[in-house]
Amino acid sequence: MPAPMIPYDFERLDADNQVSRANSFFEEMDRRRSVRFFSDAPVPRELVELAIRTASTAPSGAHRQPWRFVLTGDPEVKRQIRVAAEEEERINYEEGRLPLHWREALEPLGTDWRKPFLETVPWVVVMFEERYGMNPDGSKQHNFYVKESAGIAAGIFITALHHMGLATLTHTPSPMAFLTKLLGRPENERPFCMFPIGYPADDCVVPDLRRKTLDEVMVEVGEAPKRRT
User: Quick check: helix, strand or coil at residue 154?
Assistant: First the structure.
């Protein structure tokens, strides 16, 4: 049965406001960086909850919303996450589980297996993708475009955190199966990404990187739409 339809609450801006808002948002997001040096200053839980609610506005295949955000500020849980993540990363870096070309690509970023920020930050959020849903009768419900949907929600989550003046890092220790067990998640959920959340440390530094230009990331095909006169 089709869902009931309601009028779309949409504000159409004039051209000048569109350009101004677009430029302002670009400049704000262009300042966003992945952070590995965090302050231990407290962050209100309400902010993290708002970021999760904002992420959950993302589009998803058949509106299944196949994501679950697991939040913890518990020092012991954060310690366990750090210990397990560092062990997986140590094997990657020191025992050669990461291919050489991968380690070479990471070298300019100065990363290694040590992840102290997982205990420094006030909050850690682990995003799980829901491989399939569970109906009330215990049967499985198929989810569609799970990774695409989760990826879009993760992007909005990062954007929301930056917009409210917080910092984060897309941390994906590989493999991540330990998070399912450690956080007590069901078998239909799979770890997608881990986000330490807090304020940057006062002495925080980030690599001096260059983002690709518009010409490097955009290709136009065919004729441009004709402007109305």
Answer: helix
